[in-house]
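Contributing new complexes? Match this layout with protoporphyrin IX containing FE.
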Amino acid sequence: MSEINKSFNEVSLKRYKKLLVTTMVFTYLLIVVGGIVRVTGSGLGCPDWPTCYGKWIPPLRADAIIEYIHRLVATLTSPLILASAFIGWWKYRNIKLIKNTLIWAVFLLGLQGLLGGVVVLLETPPDLVAVHMGNALIILGLIILAGMAVDKLIANPQEQPKISFNTEFEKLALWSMIMIFVVLVTGAYTAGSGSTYACSGWPLCNGQLIPSHILGWIHMFHRLLVAITSIWVIRLYLQARKMGDLSKSLNTAILWFLIFFFSQAAVGGLKVSLQFPIWLMGTHVALAAAVWFTIVMIASRLGLKIEGEN
Ligand code: HEM
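Output block (do not edit by hand):
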């Protein structure tokens, strides 16, 4: 058993956990608000920077307020990620899982900035929009994993946390997470490639099963993946019920994940049937990130072990 030759102070671990929770909430919000800026076309809501129309408080116009909130959240998120990683490296450097996870988050944060710049310069090519979304989701996932590892350390301050997926249920959670990731990235590709309006109506695309245009195919591919992923989500739920002895917090996380996932699928179907109202487009982005947040929590919770634990 590989023990940590130092026992960590519970109070400072709990404080660090609070910082990581704040960081994950801000990273989540940044993904959501970024999506809302895009679907509402508010990117130019404030023509100047850092003020908005020359003032520190934006005018009462939806696009200016949305863009200003986006700036605020963006300004706070990067320092939070950097501070989390710095403390992880400084105080918990012999906990490899925490230190390495957050170093990767910082590296990907740098990449995210570069990608964001290239996406704007090349006028939002769909593949880069999808990579940009995928990278943001991985950053959020890494911060959640680090937060869950700190939680494990609070319960077992002498043991090195590690990650492994051994049982059928744990592997099911891991695969559900991977499939959800692909669904989110194809959603971003659908949005970035301009395929959003290629299919209206649900479940068919403009009344046809086989779309007649490439953009329709891209749109329908996103829907098809959602249908396939639903099977994994239902299997995860059935397996959780069969096991029956899961902790209350894990059961709650699974319940929220199911609520988010199926509401998201309903919102997806509804927005294409109601001719894409903006509020449903915004809800689709917010729920997408919530689905990701909860499945990463579940997979991390199931995968995190201490040495010697199966
Ligand atoms: C639980 C399942 C689903 C997840 C996790 C998901 C995720 C996503 C994500 C992340 C985006 C990119 C949003 C953006 O960047 O603006 C997206 C876009 C989209 N999704 Fe889904 N989606 C799901 C289900 C569905 C369903 C069932 C439909 C249709 C029946 C659908 C239709 C669309 C469309 C049309 C877009 C492009 C919207 C835009 O331009 O903003 N989605 N989805």
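Reviewers usually confirm one structural detail per submission. For this one: The beta strands are 161-163, 304-306.
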